[in-house]
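Provenance and format

Records in this collection were gathered into a single text stream. Each protein contributes a sequence line and a token line. The two records reproduced below are adjacent in the stream.
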Amino acid sequence: MAKALDIVSSIRSEDASIHLLFSVCIPVLIITSANTWRLWNEHWEHKAHEPPLEERVEYSYMNIRTKNYPWGDGDKVGSLVYGEWRALC
């Protein structure tokens, strides 16, 4: 009798998890995906109105570095990827 109850409870558990998946998880994923897509588009619409990088004002407090990063000075884009540690690979 105990085995029969275990089988029934496992079937109910599977039904509950499938119901939870379709009634909660998938709608939440759809809603968050739509919100993320909307925010992404708003961000790039806002970025389109900014001046190009070459025309922006360079303030004295920007890009202050008092010491180098562990992988180099940080001015080169590929310093982390093409640094000295790459020779070790």
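Adjacent record:
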Amino acid sequence: MQMIDSRTIIDQPGANQLIGRGDMLFSKDGELTRIQCGLVETREVERLVDFIAKQQGYTEAYPLPDYVPDAARAAVRRASRMARAARPSSTTCCSAR
């Protein structure tokens, strides 16, 4: 790639140094960093798509449970215990029978 092409594409020099096959430029805050990424070729993507296409399909989405962080879960348990402790005991009214 020519320096002129690099400036046209990314408005900076640097793309002309890329060798391909996963080699890329990462831009953050206007600074370019050359990085190497795993290359997934078209043939591999096609095989993966074929594999997924052969899987069992479902007529509707499987509903997942809501995520409750551990801190919130503990707070719910504490509130539940406090509510049970605050209720009058059912055995006191019925034990005389």
